[in-house]
Design a protein that fits this description.
Length: about 350
């Protein structure tokens, strides 16, 4: 008989009486270790990457103008500024020909160059450097995953005695649960998200923009709140990231908490009491001996009828057939009632089992 048939055929009253007569105790010890990694930095960096990309692809530029007074032979281009300056500084005139030609001794040389070496751009370059160091620290300090490890040790003792029998049971059960919190997003795992951030930052650091500011002086806090940084959307987000990195560099990457809980859950104890009944029931006499027992009952019944009255064989068989049919009907009705009771019992048992598993986790 399989376990399902066995449970379906159990007598609920028998099980209840057994459990009521059982003296038992249960202790559940749970050792819990929780590791929480702060992965909010991943969301923050992912949010800010597009804004940094906009700045790096389209950096702000500034025209630098240098003015030097150089000998005429070294002057490369004569501009309006050169002529105006010469007119204002006649001491730089070497001679004036009769036809009005002016020969300067020295001339103002104006040199213009486009540059990205602005405070705002140096701020972005320093931010990328800080971001790179921040991510490296996060990866080097510890694993970024969060998890909970739970080890349960259940100790159960039970004793059941009656006039004719005695049962004792001792059970020790250990279980381990590992629950990992996966910080996936848009179908990408935690590792994939971190790898993407690392690749993007590496691309930023090798960009023409960052390389062009290689020799520039780094920017440090407090950040100068220029109009561009305060009003331009990309720079507003960059400043938000700068402040986030400074604040979160102080906080630990992970926190690990350990605790031990001891409980005596009545619902779980009830399940072990039922298991005690099943175990004891398995030790009972095997049904292979039932035919001998049944034969003895029939033999006694016939002898009682034969010796107690004047009953013919035909009458006896007729009476037996009638009683057998009536008994079979009563048995079928009782079995139907028992099955219904145990369906209700199993349904209740399943609900309580789910609750018990949830508590263990």
């Amino acid at each position: 008989m399989n376990i399902v048939d066995y449970i379906n055929n159990l007598n609920k009253e028998t099980v209840t009486k057994f459990i009521e007569a059982t003296s038992s105790d249960i202790t559940i010890k749970s050792d819990i270790e929780k590791k929480v990694s702060d992965t909010s930095w991943i969301d923050m960096v992912e949010e800010c990457i597009p804004y940094l990309d906009n700045i790096i692809r389209n950096p702000r530029r500034f025209i630098v103008q240098e003015e030097n007074i150089v000998p005429i032979e070294k002057a490369k281009v004569v501009t309006e500024e050169s002529i105006r300056h010469l007119a204002q500084n006649t001491n730089l005139i070497q001679e004036v020909h009769e036809d009005g030609t002016v020969i300067p001794l020295k001339l103002l040389n104006v040199y213009r160059e486009e540059t990205i070496d602005l405070y705002e751009n140096r701020f972005i370059k320093s931010l990328v450097d800080n971001l790179y160091a921040f991510v490296q620290n996060k990866l080097n300090e510890s694993d970024q995953k969060s998890y909970a490890k739970i080890k349960n040790v259940v100790t159960y003792e039970g004793v059941k005695k009656d006039k004719t029998s005695s049962y004792k049971i001792n059970i020790s059960l250990e279980s381990d649960f590992d629950d990992e919190i996966e910080a996936s997003k848009d179908g990408h795992t935690l590792e994939e998200r971190i790898e993407h951030i690392r690749d993007v930052i590496a691309a930023f650091r090798t960009s023409t923009f960052i390389k062009g500011l290689k020799e520039s002086s780094p920017v440090r806090s407090p950040i100068r709140k220029t109009n561009v940084i305060l009003k331009e959307p990309n720079f507003i987000k960059a400043l938000e990231l700068w402040e986030y990195l400074e604040k979160n560099n102080i906080k630990p990457v992970t926190t690990v908490e350990k605790e031990t809980k001891v409980s005596k859950d009545a619902n779980i104890k009830e399940k072990y009491d039922f298991g005690f009944f099943v175990t004891s029931d398995a030790l009972k006499e095997s049904k292979s001996e039932a035919p001998v027992y049944n034969e003895a009952i029939i033999s006694k019944l016939i002898n009682d009828f034969v010796y107690s009255g004047d009953v013919t064989e035909v009458e006896f068989k007729k009476l037996i057939n009638k009683e057998f049919k009536d008994a079979s009907k009563r048995k079928q009705k009782e079995e139907a009632n028992v099955k219904k009771c145990f369906k209700d019992f199993l349904s209740d048992f399943e609900k309580k089992s789910k609750k018990a598993v949830a508590l263990l986790k």
